[in-house]
Specification:
Length: about 475
Amino acid sequence: MVLCLFLTPLVRAIGIRYGIIDQPDQYRKLHIKPVARCGGISVFLSFLIPICLFIFFVKKHSILNPNDYNRVWIIVIGGATSVLMGLADDIWDLRARWKLIFQFLIASIAYSGNLRIDTLSIPFGGSLFLGPFAFPTTIFWFMLCMNAINLFDGLDGLAAGISLFVSLTLLAVSMILQNDIGVFISLCLSGAILGFLVFNFNPASIFLGDSGSMFLGFSIAALSVISSSKAETATALFIPAIALLLPFFDLASAALRRWSKYLPMTMPDGKHLHHRIMSYGFSARRTVVILYGVCILLCSGAIVLLISSRDITNSFVLIGIALMFILGNQVFKVFDVTEVKERISHDHKLHSWSKEMAIKTATATSRANLENDFDAAWDHISALFSDFKLNEASIIDLKAGSKVVKAWEKSQNSHDSSNNEKVHPSWSLEFPIQTRDKNLQYILKVKGCSRILKIKASLSLLETLKSSLDDLK
């Protein structure tokens, strides 16, 4: 903590000096003036130095076994890699795919260093041995924690404060289970975060940045594996997951929200949990305090689940947590359940439609390919255009001044011209037709007004139809 109090102003000055700053945009970034966003460096160094002092100067008298020393070094190596990856993102704004690749490599480092999840606890007793699924489960857990903390870093002191409470919870878990290395790591991490919060709480003079959020996510993921490694009932992930439910809920809500609206997962929307709370008139500082309170309740519930031996007590805790999130989502509308249901229903209908049309397309193209006459082949192909929700289709001879060779138009009496279809945007596609005669140049042009996703589903099928027209002339 003392180290972070000393190092953070220095790191802040370096960040400002070299332009590693976060510019406000009044949409997602609600601060007033540019702020340095390299605070992860000071947190990592404040975490690293006590570990190095302990390892190099207290090793002979320590209570850590050799295997624990190896795990400590893996945390240091993985933490340093996550800081460097996050810092590169802060400076150069890496693409999402590169960040995922680096996260996968960092998680692989953890797995190779025996920071792995071999068993999962089952609520109310029992455990599940993962066997060959230990590697993907470990990778998923580390990447989940890193992205959840990173995504939750939206207000001054929010991600750092939540990470502090989770770290203190894991400290309590380690003490209860008499896990010495868990106590050691969680104390170093908690002290570093506490010192940083002095400068990061609203109004913040420095931000964690991706370097800090990625490091905290990795450290918490690693610490959760270490802290629960000596649990007799295999509590790995279950207790830490309860403590981390707030960032996990926000991450899951963002994914569902964007998926239900057909948006890319990486697209910001300004509708995270803290944004929704602030929309009800709460200030940024009060919003953070509210979320702190929720996190404290969750961490307390996690401790109760660990120490309680009564199933009825655990049931009440889990039901209470579930009701809290259900009611919270009803009030703040972090994601719309109706939109999720509509997306599922639409995907089911689209899948059924695609299967049906694939069969019809295969039948029509087979019949068209058996015809030697172009007019007869066109009749087989055009019979499917209404099923594709097309308004017009034509074959155009480009060499003859865009002369229309064949044309099809939707019947005015077609039931497809419903009100629902009219609201969709119109679109058109052109497919070049291959011919034996290189002097001929034809295209198949189609127009429609169906959903954009149905266009994507139709594209490969339309390509199949087009291919049956190739080489007929």
